[in-house]
Amino acid sequence: MRVEIISIGDELLIGQTINTNASWIGQECSLLGIRIVQVTTISDEKELIKDAVDMAFTRSDLVLVTGGLGPTKDDITKHTLCEYFNTELEIHIPTLERIEAFFISRNRPMLDVNIRQAELPKSCTILDNRNGTAAGMWFDYEGKILISLPGVPYEMKGIMIEEVFPRLKAKFKLKALYHKTILTQGIGESFLAEQISDWENDVREQGLGLAYLPSPGMVKLRLTSYEGESRSEEIDRYFDQLIKRFPHYIFGTGDETLQGVVGQVLRDKHLTIGTVESCTGGALAHQIVSVSGASNYFQGSLITYSNELKGKLANVDEKIIDGFGAVSSEVVEQMARNGRDLLGVDVCLATSGVAGPEGGTNEKPVGLVWIGISTSDRTISKCFRFGDNRERNIQMTVLTALNLVRCEILGILFEKK
Amino acid sequence: MRVEIISIGDELLIGQTINTNASWIGQECSLLGIRIVQVTTISDEKELIKDAVDMAFTRSDLVLVTGGLGPTKDDITKHTLCEYFNTELEIHIPTLERIEAFFISRNRPMLDVNIRQAELPKSCTILDNRNGTAAGMWFDYEGKILISLPGVPYEMKGIMIEEVFPRLKAKFKLKALYHKTILTQGIGESFLAEQISDWENDVREQGLGLAYLPSPGMVKLRLTSYEGESRSEEIDRYFDQLIKRFPHYIFGTGDETLQGVVGQVLRDKHLTIGTVESCTGGALAHQIVSVSGASNYFQGSLITYSNELKGKLANVDEKIIDGFGAVSSEVVEQMARNGRDLLGVDVCLATSGVAGPEGGTNEKPVGLVWIGISTSDRTISKCFRFGDNRERNIQMTVLTALNLVRCEILGILFEKK
Predict the structure, then answer these.
(1) Is the pLDDT reported for residue A417 higher than 70?
(2) Could you tell me how far CA B1 lies from the centroid of its own chain?
(3) B254/A contact by beta carbon, under 8 A
(4) N or C: less crowded end of chain A, CB within 10 Å?
């Protein structure tokens, strides 16, 4: 099946918005064995949209259109598709009810423009949008399919996952690829590739596909079987080999998150956690709390950004700060140890570092971070050297701290690379 | 002048790489008054490339091609363009010398494949690439122009800035567009459109372009003058009208962020800030701290996620929690008021809500959030009803709290919609 994407929106052409929708769709489709042959980005103009659809239908069986479904005047996709498919708008009652419910649940009045979003082409199948007011539309037309989706990423993704992919799987015999992914933290892509090169040669010789998917602080490793699920056990065995060798780097599989894994470890061991944060400024706590049900183990945190509050809230010894500096092993260990008592938790993480871009010195440059952890067994600290970018340094610190607590609780020797 | 982009590369279609080149070119071109009418992303295949160029020449005067100029076998753009323009490759001596110098300066051996990168089409103008080995190519063809550039972003940008834009400025009388953007928080796109419909009619009648650019919790409004900067004052006047009417929604312009604006307001007024957070779990503090130099005003926070810590750390009266519940006006006001003292700050924000997806009741459903703020003047609280999604509820709470503190400090009546 040949599929292409038409992305509609001036904001994409003038570069105010990056077309992440197309890349997300490309990723998800390639996991399903669907090949995207072209992405066309055009302006919100009726004739351009029609021409692009015409051209797309000459090349492809399925055309995914994103954007131009909002309630404002510059959103014309719906009207254009009505003309193109020679149909007309009518109120779609279930959509109207859904929009009404959407506004009632948010306790906000519904406007005329919102009601008009329930006016949808007669000839299409409506695809529910649970995250917004612009419904998706599925047109069958002379053996081809056109699917129109809102441009807001989480609305588009919701409709793709809940409505489009299940229908495509049911309608077409998709050549089933089988993928499995393991997730690593604490080692860069090139180091990882070097350390697992023998394993990589093995899996490639066996005809499995291997992809490194790096993101800041993490590398995903994806194995693909082109013969579908029949090789799933083999893939599991290959991954088990890696997990045995690198338990400190490999924290999970598939869609797991590091904070989710840490949460499960804490639940399993009946432990509570808290944080005492300086450079991460609450980002670590926020990441822990982003997991639904975090209240089962997360109690709270002290964000001691100023040195004064390190003393006042976390009882860090002023002399220690003066002697070793706020970014030091001694200070993060006091923060972690005192945090356990003050927050009444079993495990406490502490962070202190130079997030940058200002505040670096020769001795303590931007990117230098200390992370401390205190449990009933012991209190330790580790030093890291991240980069120049403030947000990335904070993010790297958060991920590293989460992996550190995972290793510490599970008795895995933590290594850094 | 009508311009379009052809981006070549499988990695773009399967979503492994996001097409940031197209958005960068779009941004830079729109600043020069060059309109990008289409972006087409295709695979590294000869026939597809030729077809895409054919189509692009029917619509546009200038075609920018990125990608497919690397030294490996799957990079075929150069050969394809040779066929398309009916020319042949020859060694381009200045490029060969540049490549040699490039390898010498990096102390790396030059390979055959690198030498072949100096083989370039006879009929084109060569555009120097100072950041890599793949030269750019400028083809004049039947009154149209095709420019081929490497896909590596910093190489492409270098050639665009140093070679392409100066030539385009010299060759064409470029009509400069002028854009200005204002940023709103606390009102949805459709409400905003309704409230400013008279103003919108005005600006459109005057021939200005208006775009709504929504993102979670925020809507950007962009005005465009097609006659360049000459209408900048007029645009400022139009925006001033809006700012006067909606000072509570409009927090900034252009590339500003809400946390950056709040930081500047705090600096201007010589105020310090802290937070006492329940449902946001540190996300509010993290957002404040994401601004470089936040240590000038941010002191720290108490993350009192458990009810026990609301009492123990923030001195919230146990009876108040039992009587009104943790998600209540009374509790967030105590949290904010006590936080001011405990953190020693001028302004304290407090949050308590049902982030979801669990924990909702009929009386206090998922998405219900109380935000409190305490200053030397007063302590108040506001109730909000966000949606079903945990991460979004946290994000909406953070943005709303930041806008609330901006309004409170600036003496703007906060309204919610």
Answers:
(1) no
(2) 27
(3) no
(4) C
